[in-house]
Hints:
Layout: H1 10-28, H2 52-68, E1 76-78, H3 86-94, E2 98-103, E3 110-112, E4 126-129, E5 140-146, E6 149-158, E7 167-176, E8 182-189, H4 196-204, H5 207-219, H6 230-253, H7 261-281, H8 287-297
Parallel strand pairs: 1-2
Antiparallel strand pairs: 2-8, 3-4, 5-6, 6-7, 7-8
Amino acid sequence: MLVKQTIRSATEKAAIKSRKKRRSAAAKKPQQLSGRPKGVLNKDKTRLELSAELWRINESLKVILKLVRVFVRVKHLALDGHFGHNQAVLMARDNDLDLISKLRKDAALFEKYQGEQRGRGRRKRYGEKLNYRELPPKYLKKSEAEGDIQTNYYQGVLLSKSFGCELNVVIIERINVKTQQIGHAILFSSDLELNWEKLLQYYSLRFQIEFNFRDAKQHFGLEDFMTTTERGVENAANMAFLMVNVSAQLLQEDQAKCRGINDLKAQFRGIKYALETIKLIEPKAEMILIEKVTEVISRIGSIHRHNFSVSSP
């Protein structure tokens, strides 16, 4: 729906490089439980402070929503795990959307405090920290087994100290029955009313973007264009993705004959060759002959071929 070229500024590149260095240095240092560094204050988790990356996404999002909301009601924004943080939630809510994204597999999540509150002082928000090795049965929504793999789906409204709001969290737990190895994937949404199955479905739709990039590169020249101007790059990229959408519609309309983009390209290429050949050989060829010839030639080069018989007129 919208493709825009992104060029990072020198300042942004330097900030990314510096952040990577800090992370690398922190990973090498032994962990020290020294508490909060002196002079560091609490951050306002409800204040929107967009990074350069989020600012670009926010500008594009506003353009898309302005077009789409004329026809449909949009409620959710799905982003990958890179944007599974508080500022992305605030950006989504600034556009009247709820974020669907992914957390790290070791994200610190807490249950809401259910005990008695003190008479004085700040009220307690955080209860027990979630133990991924022993997830509470009360959050279990579904359990299924396939071969040696057992998959459990958990959902609950939980808290994170990195977020300024409650989170609707879905945890996918996969257990190898033979080896007892356990793996987790943690999805979340700022929409607390969203059903866990819908949350999984909406997040899985994000992978269609990866398939679109694959098809645009493989079939429609996204990797091959040679233009370097800003307008030229945007036109070439938009044309590649437009052809992905057009081909998807054509495949849906003609599923009996074409089962992939290669079949579709072979069909249109064959029709073009057939028509050009007929023009040279028989300028006044009958329409029935043209249809039969193009029907056969358009199948040449396709992956899933169908047998056609052409009878003499």
